[in-house]
Predict the structure of Dienelactone hydrolase.
Amino acid sequence: MKWIRRLLLGLVVLVVGIGAAVVWKAMRTERRVGFQLTRATDSNGQPFTVGIWYPTQARTWPTTQLGLNLMDVAADGPVAGNGLPLVVLSHGNAGGPGSHADLALALADAGYVVAAPMHSGDNYADQSAAGTVAWLGGRNRQLRLTLDYMLKSWPGHAHLNPARVGAFGFSAGGITVLTAVGAQPDLRLIAGHCAESPEFICTVLREGNSPLLDPDKAKEGNTYAADPRIRAAVVAAPGLGFTLGPGALAAVRVPVQLWSGEQDTVVSYATNTKRVREALGSGAEFHSVPGAEHFSFLTPCGLLAPPLLCTDPGQFDRKAFHLGMNASVIAFFDKNIR
């Protein structure tokens, strides 16, 4: 029987050790940050999840799991401060509110409120809308409805300054944010581009028999609305950049910070970010990141580290990169909406 007791003791020690390691690896901030998961409502009456980070005076605990990481936050703590700037955050295809949790925490630490919608039908749990005709237009609508919710219905909305609003988007979230500040992608261009290109998104659309590969059907999806409340935008590795034909970015009047990874083979610079950069000209603050690939822009991984999302090329240091990028994003928003 001694061996059973020793085995049980060993298991207890192992579990306690793993728990301690997880808590020790939790994402932390210098100032206290509150967090809550709530829901906004889409135009069809269906709710969608929104993750919200904000300054607070409440005590924080390293017990809130979001995506692959544990956060040291005050769950549902009261909001601290008034006239706070707001940043809405659009995740990439198959992502979620936790995709850029470290950036959200850094912004909240700096005095911002951050709202990250979980795009319906295009998240890690549900891909039913991805590649459909309504895909991009739906993302655009949900980003705007998140702003509506935050500025009008969120219990903490009185702490916000509606004149100080920014947006961040990555990959599919990048093109989503661009549409929200005036870009007009033409989805009819997908078919011609994908007929000649081995680009990753083209492979995905072909394998899924996407109607977007039919120019006539794709035309029906060209419905986006700009949101004049957004005064500045940060866009990282924007997908579907090849749908931005001549004049597609002419209505973008807000300052844009643009990021690209030099080793990105998922969303190539030449047919995506480059088009945005050239169209915006001096209106874009461009950052090219040596050694970074597409998923390098996602939050650095904790103990749970799936290789596809968490493995960077060579000796690239994702944590160090994010410290620098987050500081640059905060400085950009400080300059343009603060």
